[in-house]
């Protein structure tokens, strides 16, 4: 790795890491609450997806792990809804999906049609990386919740049982999933194309 690329990597990690802290702790920047008592819509996944696109699997996974650790800490110290208290105090649910956001985004952008990063195909890959990264977070949270809480599903969603918990979670989080995926599909190619210019 050249000195120029090392400086770029360190700069991007520092900027995106600081942005994750800002998003996590400044109200209505990283978490936008629309419906009381339900988890807020996140914008932090955008930062982690950008990290995966710009820095590859290691960078994306590292930023995802950082976000996951902050989610775990906030669930213990600053939770604002019962779902967060119940689910995100579990390290598996809090951290693993966040790591995979960065990994999935990195794999899609950096390992599919590798030669195409700055053209139309690169833009399409950024859109896919954004959408798939966002859905990865929501999907894995639902899967891990179903696995870990199947025996007490009613505590997660009223009226749920082991067989229908996953479907009820998808219904309860549908607004979040769609909003986060749409945001990522729009924002990632816009910011990604700008930041990739400095990587050349």
Keyphrases for this structure?
two-stranded antiparallel sheet, mainly alpha, 2 strands, 200 residues, 72% helix
Fraction of residues in H or I helices: over 70%
| Unreliable stretches covering 5 or more consecutive residues | none
Q: Characterize the biggest β-sheet.
A: 2 strands, antiparallel
Terminal Cα span: 13 Å
Mean pLDDT metric? 88
- Strand residue percentage: under 5%
Going across the biggest sheet, name each strand in turn: 1-2
Q: What is the N-to-C succession of helices and strands?
A: HEEHHHHHH
Number of strands: 2
Count of discrete alpha- or pi-helical segments spanning 4 or more residues: 7
Structural class: mainly alpha
Global outline: globular
Rg from alpha-carbon coordinates: 17 Å
């Amino acid at each position: 790795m050249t000195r120029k690329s090392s400086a770029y990597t360190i700069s991007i990690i520092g900027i995106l890491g600081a942005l994750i802290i800002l998003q996590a702790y400044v109200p209505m920047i990283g978490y936008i609450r629309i419906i009381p008592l339900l988890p807020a819509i996140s914008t932090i996944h955008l930062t982690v997806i950008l990290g995966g696109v710009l820095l590859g699997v290691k960078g994306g996974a590292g930023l995802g792990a950082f976000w996951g650790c902050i989610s775990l800490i906030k669930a213990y110290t600053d939770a604002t809804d019962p779902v967060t208290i119940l689910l995100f105090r579990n390290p598996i649910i809090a951290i693993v999906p966040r790591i995979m956001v960065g990994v999935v985004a990195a794999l899609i952008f950096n390992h599919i049609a590798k030669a195409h990063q700055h053209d139309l195909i690169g833009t399409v890959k950024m859109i896919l990386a954004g959408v798939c990264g966002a859905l990865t977070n929501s999907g894995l949270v639902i899967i891990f919740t179903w696995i870990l809480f199947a025996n007490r599903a009613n505590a997660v969603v009223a009226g749920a049982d082991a067989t229908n918990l996953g479907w009820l979670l998808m219904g309860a989080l549908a607004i979040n999933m769609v909003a986060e995926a749409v945001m990522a599909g729009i924002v990632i190619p816009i910011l990604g194309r700008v930041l990739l210019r400095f990587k050349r």
